[in-house]
Amino acid sequence: MRYIIGYTMRQDEDNGVHLTAFTGIDASTPEEASAAFLAAHPDRRVVRVIDGTPNNCSLYGASAWTDEERAAHRERLAEKYSREQDAARDVKEYVATYEPDEFAARVAYEQRRASEQTQNAEGVHVGDLFFCEWGYEQTNVNYYQVTALKGAHTIVVRELKTRRREVLDTMTGYSRPIRDSFRDEHAYTLRTRYQFNELYINAPEERGSLRPWEDGKIGHFTAYA
């Protein structure tokens, strides 16, 4: 039968408590399991012996598993990782795909930006893309496009729709902005400045700062239920 041995690993002298670790041993009785463990580890002290049921083994972790169980678990993890990698590749390919009108908008922006002068002192052009990442237990990504310049240090941006998809069963996904496709009619007027030799723009709705975004780049987000 399989038993789980709880034993003192080391002592926290500041708080006067022992820290307990666990391992699994095959034996006929709890007493035999304890004796076998102490014979191999005379410097340890056994504090509990627990039946190695499947639930208990899962509760106390891989240290209580047999070699065969560990090998099977590693194989399952490898298969899961392979599936997730395949799914992530498919999602990235989907997100990276441009529709003809999207590609035309990108080309028109690049041609216009190369030929026109900007009145913004920090070098921002109409059509430039920006993003911000925010969130506490998950990472959200919002994208914005400059729709107008106001004087030397002020821009107007609108939030963009995205091409996005989650990776199956991973609570993560990928996204990119869709140029000229705005989420709503709301526009944000923001100040631009240089801070620590970098362009700095406060993000709308107090979500940190906006940073430049390159066409064709793919963003990564996380999501929790």
Describe what this molecule looks like in 3D.
The chain is of the alpha+beta class and 225 residues long. It has two domains: 2-65, no CATH class; 96-222, no CATH class. Helices cover 28% and strands 40% of the residues. The protein is built from four helices and twelve strands; from the N terminus they run E-E-H-E-H-H-H-E-E-E-E-E-E-E-E-E. The strands form two sheets. Strands 4, 5, 6, 7, 8, 9, 10, 11 and 12 form a nine-stranded antiparallel sheet that branches. Strand 9 (193-195) and strand 10 form a beta hairpin. The radius of gyration is 29 Å and the shape is elongated. The two termini are 39 Å apart. The mean pLDDT is 89.
Order of helices and strands: EEHEHHHEEEEEEEEE
Q: Please summarize the sheet with the most strands.
A: 9 strands, antiparallel
**Cα separation of the termini:** 39 Å
**Category from helices, strands and their pairing:** alpha+beta
Number of strands: 12
Integer-rounded radius of gyration: 29 Å
Principal-axes geometry comes out as: elongated
Helix content class: 25-40%
Beta-strand share of residues: 35-45%
Assembly state here? Answer: single chain
**Which residues form runs of ≥5 with pLDDT under 50?**
none
Total helical elements: 4
Mean pLDDT: 89
Number of domain modules: 2
Compact overview of the structure:
The chain has helices at 30-40, 54-60, 67-96, 100-115, and strands at 2-12, 17-26, 46-51, 129-134, 140-150, 154-167, 172-182, 188-191, 193-195, 198-202, 209-213, 219-222. The protein is an alpha+beta fold and 225 residues long. A hairpin with a 4-residue loop joins strand 1 and strand 2.
